[in-house]
Amino acid sequence: MKRLLFNILPFIVFAIAAFVYMAIRYQDLMYVVQMQDMFRYDVSYFLQMIIEPGFMLRYVGSFLGQFAFHPMLGILLFVALLILLAWLLKWGFKISAEATSIALIPSLLIMMYVSGWDYNVFAMRHYGNLFSPIVGCLTMASLAAWYVRIGCRWMRYVWTILVIAIGYPLVGIYAFGTVVMALLHDIFESKRFDWIMAVMAVVLAVAVPFIASRYFFVKFNTMFLASAGLPYLDFGEDANIKTPLYIAIVATVLIPVAGKLLNMLKYDRMRLIVSAALTLIVMILVPIKANSDSNFRTLLAIEHAYEDGEDDRVFDLCLQEKNPIRSIIQYRNIELFRRNQLLDHMFNYSWVSSDIKCNGFCSNTWITASRVYFKHGFFNFAYRWAMERSVRYKYSNIDTKMMAAASVYNQEKVLAERYLSLLDNTLYYKDCAKDIRKLYDKELMHNDNLYQRHRQIAFVPKGAIDNTEMCEYMLMKHFMNLQVTSVQRNDLSIANAMVAANQDVFWKLCLARYQQNPNQPLPKHVQEAALLFAFLKQNPQLYNQIKLMVGPEGEVCQQFERIQDIIVRLLTQPMDSDVNTLLSICPGTYWSYFFYDARQPMVFD
Question: What does the alpha-carbon distance between residue 202 and residue 193 come to, in Å, rounded to a whole number?
Answer without folding.
Answer: 14
